[in-house]
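User: Hi! I'm working on a homework problem where we have to compare a predicted structure to a textbook description. Could you give me the structure for the chain below?
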Amino acid sequence: MFTILEKAVLGMAVLRLLSGSIEIFAALLMIKLNDIEKALIVNSSLAFVGPIILIVTTSIGLLGLADKISFIKMFWIFLGVGFILYGVKSG
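Assistant: Happy to help. Predicted structure tokens:
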């Protein structure tokens, strides 16, 4: 009858909800400001928030799997996330 959520899943979901809320707030702020230069500043700020949410969400998920996944697999996952961030930044 009751569904018990894992703490890691709940934490990841809350961070994604927070991230989505920040995105919506930023879009509304851009509309309210109605200035291309200010909108660009708001958009640039989002570029800082996105990778932080990605890293923290992935870390929470990996900590939740810590007892089920080997160290080498954890290393490859973090390396993959690092490559994603590097690929996005260098483009």
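For your comparison, note the following. The chain has a mean pLDDT of 88. The radius of gyration is 17 Å. Good luck with the assignment!
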